[in-house]
Each structure stands twice: as C-alpha cells, then as structure tokens.
Amino acid sequence: MQRFRCFVAGIFLCMFFCAAATAQRTYWQQKAEYKMAVKLDVHTNRLTGTEQVTYYNNSPDTLHRIFFHLYWNAFQPGSMMDVRSRELGKIVLGLNEKGDTVRDWDSRVRDRILHLKPDEIGYDSVVTLKMDGRRQEIRYHETILEVLPDRPVLPGSSVRFDLIFKCQVPVQIRRSGRDNAAGVRYSMSQWYPKICEYDYRGWHPTPYIAREFYGVWGDYDVTIDLDKHYLVGGTGYLQNPQQTGYGYAAAGTKVSSPRGGLLSWHFYAPNVHDFMWAADPRYRHLSQTVNNAAQTTLHVIYKKDTASAAAWQEVLKAAVRALPFIEKHFGPYPYKQYSFIQGGDGGMEYPMGTLIAGPSLGTVFHEWMHSWYQMMLGTNESMYPWMDEGFATYAEGKVSYYYYHAYADSVFKDDPKGREITLGKLDKALPLGAADAYRGYFSLVESGLAEPMTTHADHYETNFAYGQNAYSKGAVFLEQLGYITGAQVRDSILMQYYRKWRFKHPDPNDFMRVAEKVSGMQLDWYQEYWINTTKTIDYGIEDLKNEDGHAQITLRRIGEMPMPVDLLVRYKDGHTEMHYIPLYEMFGTKPREDSAGRRIVHKPWRWTNPVYHLSLPDSVSAISSIEIDPSQRMADTGRGDNRVSGGIIIGRARHPKADLVN
Q1: What is the pLDDT of residue 24?
Q2: How far apart are the first and last CA of the chain?
Q3: Rg of the chain taking only CA atoms, in angstroms
Q4: Is the distance from CB of 146 to CB of 139 less than 8 angstroms?
Q5: Which residues pair with 571 in a beta bridge?
Q6: Average pLDDT rounded to a whole number, residues 620-633
Q7: Residue 8 CB coordination number (10 Å)
Q8: So what's the pLDDT on residue 648?
C-alpha cells in the first residue's frame, strides 16, 4: 500500500511539474510568404492585383477566424480616422507665439478626409478570397477584413490564401498616398491586404485610426507593373535591374528594357514584416555600396527638380559615414540594401527603406534607426510605441552627436557659424545627445496631460501626450537606464537585446529581462514606475550643516518615483568625490563610470524613507559645491534644489519645496 501511495504521489508530482513547464511562455511566431503581382494605372490612380499568402500557424492554437488589414479604407469621409481626427481637433492645447489657437489634431490630417472627393478617397477592396482553392466568407469592418474559413487552421499547419484585390490610391494625407506636398506621385505604403498578426495574446486586428503597425514576419515576392517613365524604389532586392535600368543595373552593363508602355519591377524581400514602394517620373537615384558584412548598398531617391539636391546628396554621404558607428553600438545591419526615398508626409519607417519628405539628417538618422527598433526588433507599435519611437529617438540622438563631432570639418566646411551653433548646442545641453528628449518629457509633465506609457497608441486622450510619451519619455527611458546601470552596461544591454530578439516580437518584459541579466540588478521597479505610472522624479538637497567638524548632508525624495542617487562633492582644493547611493530595490550597484576623483558607495536608500543622511569627512568650509546627478540623466522635474555652491553658510540650507512635504 505504501509503495502504491508513493507511486501515485510521484505521478501527481510529475503532472504538476509538466503543467508548470507548459504554463511558462514558450516563444513562437507566425510566418507569412507573400507573392503579389500588381498593376498601377497612373492615369486613374487605381491599382489591381493578385496576392498569394502562404500562412504558417506556428501557434499552439486552432484558428477559427483570420483577419487582414485594409488600411486605405481609412481615407474616406466618416471613417474612424476621420472622426477621431476631428474630435481631437476640438481640444485646445493653448496659444502659439503668434497668439493663434493650437488644436490637438494632427496638422497633416485635420478634417481633410471629410472633404475628399470620390476620385481622391482611398479604398482597398478584396474581390475574391480563397483558402486552399475554396472561396471563403468575408466580412468588412472598414479597415479590417474578417475571414470566416470553412475549416479551422490547425496548430502546426499552413494554408494558402489567394486574393484578387483592387485599390484606389488616396490623395496624400497620412503616410501613404499620391501627389504629396513635394509633388511625389506615389508613396505606396499600407497598400495591400496584409494579414494581421496573431501572437501569444491572440489576434491583433487593430483598426487604422492614427498610429503605427504590427506585422507577421515573412518573405515578399512582389512584381509591379506601371508606366515605364516612372522610377521605383522600396523594400527588397530588385531582381531584374538589367530590364529596369534607372541606376540599378551594374555599371558598364547594357540595359534591355521590354517594348511597350509599361515596365515591370520585380522585388524580393526576405525575412521582413511589410513591403513599401514609391514611384515618380522625376526621381533621381544615387547609390553607394558600403564595406560592412552585408555589403549593403545605400540608395537615395529624390525628385530631380528639388531645390535641395545638394542636401539629398549629403544624405548618402552621411549614411555611409554613420553606418560603422551604428553597427558598433546597435548591431549589424543584415540586409543588402537600404533606401532613403523622398515621399510621404514627414518621415515613416519600413523594412529596408524610409519615406521622408525632406533631407533633414535628424529625420534621416531617426528613420534609419527604426531599421533596428521595429524592422529587426519587431515590437507591437500599437501597444508599445515607446519601444520603437522612443528607442529610435534615443539612437538618433547618439548618432547625431557622433556624426556632427566626427565630421565637423567636412559638414561645416563653409559654415563656421553653423558649426559653432550646432556643436555648442550639442556640447552644452545635458544630458549629452538626449537633451531634446528630456525637454519634451518635462513639457509633458508640466502640461498635466501625462498618461501611463502602457496606454494603447490610439487610445491617448491627446495627440500631444502620445507624441511626448512615445518619442521623448521613451528615449529618456534608455538614457536614464544608463544612469541606473551605468552607460557601458546599458550599451551592453542594447547589444544583447539585439542579439536575442532580432527578427522576433519582443515586448517590455522581454527587454527588462535582458536588462536584468546583463546588469545583475533588479529592474522591475523601474518598469513599474516609469512605464506603468505617471509618477515623477524629484530629489533635493534639504539640509547641510557641520557636526563635530564633519559636513552632514540631508537629501529628500520629493517626487513619487524613487531612484539611485549620484552626489558629486567638489572641494575648494580641486579634488572631487562621487557619493553613490544605490536604491534598495535594485539589489545591486552600478559600476564606476569614470576614473575622475574618489568614489564612495553608501548603503542603499529604501523607498519607504523620504530622507537620507550622509556624513562627509571634511567640514562644510572645505566644500566648493554639492550636486545631485551632475550628468542630468535622472529626469528630475525640479532641479532647482539639486545644487548648492558658493557662499555656503554652515547650518541649514533648506529648499522651499522641502516645507511642502513635511
């Protein structure tokens, strides 16, 4: 009987541990292989095409519904995008410098959709849809197409969808369209029926209202037929350069274009999650191959008649120069090409290319860095916009800081005043390379419109809060992480994040686990406060006095969010001491970041204690200044009490804010 009981107990233990192992998330992701053949009529602005999608269900789930995006249906009067934009336009943010009312709508959208004429609207229409040769029931939900398959898609299986579709290219309003402000004929993004992503959270049939995207990893084989006078650039590798010409054919080889008025452009893009292209009859094409591991060819495509031709040429030069720095700090670029294409309505990122309205290098660097933070590290932009926009903004700042310093002699060769202004701004504004992001975040705090960064991108109460959260606060997240872990450790975190999660779909928890493993610290508290809440940081020097010949410092946490503290003490004889106070919740300390002066590590500060006391070996009279976080990487919303210097009076040096918390 005893043996039987032990046997039964063993079975139950085995079942328990097997169930526990199964309950842990095992990573998987779906895959889609696209083969498309489309024809664009440049006279009617209409596109017709066929699409084959082989869809691999790598999930453990049986799929009873399938969803596709039909983005261009947003560009019709009364659409969700139209209504949302007009509703946000009712919100008044204040007055600008001219005294004009500032409304919260996107200036590119405003109420323009409402006034579109029938030949200006956009639409995506699926004529027929078959699964494995059988016609399927479909339902339209504006920008989402729901497929009700006659047979469920089983785990570990694949199916083939065959679609015949037709579209009308909308007038350029947001991201994609025709005839933009610079006269570019076609900016073709979000243009085809695109299968929605399904992950461990389920389906993501996100309607197209304003924000960005989330796509299935896969391969694209795309053939585009259009007027032979149009030059095309976009995602993927051109398969027939000897037929297209326009600067794509190998130097010294003969181009043999087919007869007739149309030209076929055949692209293949492996391991990406979207496909973009652009076309114009007056495009000019520049290119250069760089000596990286992928032997990447960089393309710059812009309108010939633009007044900023020299600036577009500078884009190619800057990209060639910046790539080694980018790859060293953020990971190798793995694709064989990248294209900077004039088009769209500002700047928008896509696999192997970007649509940018102009040749601003800030925009160039930002959109290019999206090749890392979205195009390789494919986060869900709707749910976690700060993980792509914020990370790209952070990287843009680092690349810009490097580029303008490393190539100042060339960039500012004939512009000494521009050199003085640009480098002066970069070198004086703290934190270095990230000051603009901090200013944006502080403006959000001051506005009173802040929302948690866990807010879905389309669900923010204001466009302003979305923008500052996604771009500014997201960038501050990384710069401030360097303050917590040490900058070199933060850089190692980003490289390990790249190695572990490229070509996948990471989420915030995945990033934080990498950060914890690399740093050896607990960082869940940082995610909780900075991402999940709107609590702010504010520390101050509350008291300074002598006691038995030793300076006694009292620090106070005034804000709601706790942080570790760097406290720099400068002495009148010229030497310095960095007093480092870890946060208790970190269960670790950051390594020394520089070799200047002496570093003293103090006992951790517990978040339950609003004040912290420390004693210095010298008296107050020996001190020149005391400063909390001289690097200004900690996003302290009230730095007025972070520094005491000059004319220090022995006794109480209290900041007025301290009285507010007693």
Answers
A1: 55
A2: 69
A3: 28
A4: yes
A5: 623
A6: 96
A7: 10
A8: 54
Greatest Cα-to-Cα distance within the chain, rounded to the nearest angstrom: 96
> Closest Cα partner for 388 from 457, 299, 448?
457
Q: Which has the higher per-residue pLDDT, 626 or 11? A: 626
Computed over every residue of the chain, the mean pLDDT equals 93
Task: Return the structure tokens found at 217.
Answer: 């990893």
Of the candidates 586, 578, 537, 529, which has an alpha carbon nearest to the alpha carbon of residue 557?
Answer: 537
Distance CA 645, CA 393 (A): 34
On the question of pLDDT at 49 being above 90, the answer is yes
pLDDT in tens, 241-286: 999 999 999 988 999 988 999 999 999 999 999 999 999 999 999 9
Residue from 336, 346, 398, 337 nearest 367 by CA: 346
Phi, psi of 147 (to 5 degrees): -110, 130
Of 320, 478, 284, nearest to 403 by C-alpha is 320
Q: Which residues contact 117 (CB under 8 A, 6 or more apart)?
A: none
DSSP string, 564-619: -EEEEEEETTS-EEEEEE-BGGG-S-PPP---SSEEEEPPPBPTT-SEEEEE-SS-
Task: Point out which residues pair with 34 in neighbouring strands.
Answer: 53, 220
The C-alpha atoms of residue 174 and residue 344 are separated, in whole angstroms, by: 7
- Split at pLDDT 50, 70, 90, the class of 305 is confident
- DSSP-derived letter for residue 304 is T
Cβ 234 vs Cβ 339: under 8 Å: yes
> What are the structure tokens assigned to 207, written together?
């309607």
Which pLDDT score, from 0 to 100, does residue 588 have?
97
| Paired tokens of 576 | 């310095």
- Tell me the sheet residues that pair with 576: 570
d(CA 88, CA 457): 14
pLDDT of residue 645: 87
Q: Looking at residue 468, what DSSP letter applies?
A: I
CA distances from 123 to 71, 79, 136, 222 (A): 8, 11, 21, 20
Q: Which helix (H) or strand (E) holds 66?
A: strand 66-69
Element (H, E) at 202: strand 202-203
Beta carbons within 10 angstroms of residue 634's beta carbon: 24
Q: Provide the whole-model pTM.
A: 0.94
Asked whether the predicted pLDDT for residue 647 surpasses 90, the reply is: no
For residue range 412-467, list pLDDT tens digits in order: 999 999 999 999 999 999 999 999 999 999 999 999 999 999 999 999 999 999 99
E strand or H helix at 354, and its extent? strand 353-356
For range 598-625, the mean pLDDT: 96
User: How would you classify the pairing of strands 353-356 and 337-342?
Assistant: parallel
Rounded Cα distance between 630 and 641, Å, is: 12
Q: For residue 576, which phi and psi values (nearest 5 degrees)? A: -130, 160
Per the CB < 8 A criterion, the answer to whether 579 and 614 are in contact is yes
- CA–CA separation, 658 and 529 (whole Å): 22
The whole-angstrom separation of Cα 580 and Cα 596 is 14
